[in-house]
Amino acid sequence: MAAIRPGLGRVLPGSSVLFLCDMQEKFRHNIAYFPEIVSVAARMLKVARLLEVPVMLTEQYPKGLGPTVPELGAEGLQPLPKTCFSMVPALQQELDARPQLRSVLLCGIEAQACILNTALDLLDRGLQVHVVVDACSSRSQVDRLVALSRMRQSGAFLSTSEGLILQLVGDAAHPQFKEIQKVIKDPAPDSGLLGLFQGQNPIFR
C-alpha cells in the first residue's frame, strides 16, 4: 500500500480514533442544537463500533455538570473526568499507547473551549484532526463559527459526519457497509451550519 500523504487528510479505521467530548446533562439546555449534535455524535459512535475504531469519552467536572447524556449511546465506555479545557491531558496515556495513530475524529462541546484546545493539543503532537462540524457546537453561534475557522487556520480538517463515515468504510463491498448504510440512510439533522457557511463568509475564505 502506498504511504498516506499527510496533507490529504485521509482517514482509515486502523489509524484513527474517535473523541467524544463532554456531552453532559447540564449542557442540555444551554448548547445550541444540543439534541442534533448528540444525535450526530451517536452516529459516529455506532460506526466506530462497527469498524472497530477506538473511542475515547471525557466529562468536564462531572460532579457539577452531570454525566454523559444517555442518548449518546455510550454504554460500555468509561468516561474520563477532567477539569482542563482539553481532552488531551486526560487521555495522554491512551494516546501514548497508540503509536499507529494518525487521525483523531473530534465531536462534542464547546467548540471554542474544549474542542478548540483539544484540536490544538493534538495538532501539536503531529496528529491529523478531523472536526466533525455537525457534531460540535457552543452556547454562542459566533463562538462556534470563529472556533471552526480558528481550527481550520491551525491545520485541522472540517468534515461532516457522513463524509468521514464514508471515508472510513471506503467501499460498498465492505462487510459492514449494509449496517453502516442503515446509520446514514436518513440525512444528519440540521444543526444550523448552513447559516454559518452560506454566502461569502469572510471567515472561511
Automatic annotation (TrEMBL):
Pfam families: Isochorismatase (PF00857). CDD domains: YcaC_related. SUPFAM superfamilies: Isochorismatase-like hydrolases. Residues 16-162 form the Isochorismatase-like domain. Interacts with CDKN2A. Belongs to the isochorismatase family. PANTHER family: HYDROLASE, ISOCHORISMATASE DOMAIN-CONTAINING PROTEIN 2. This is Isochorismatase domain-containing protein 2 isoform X2.
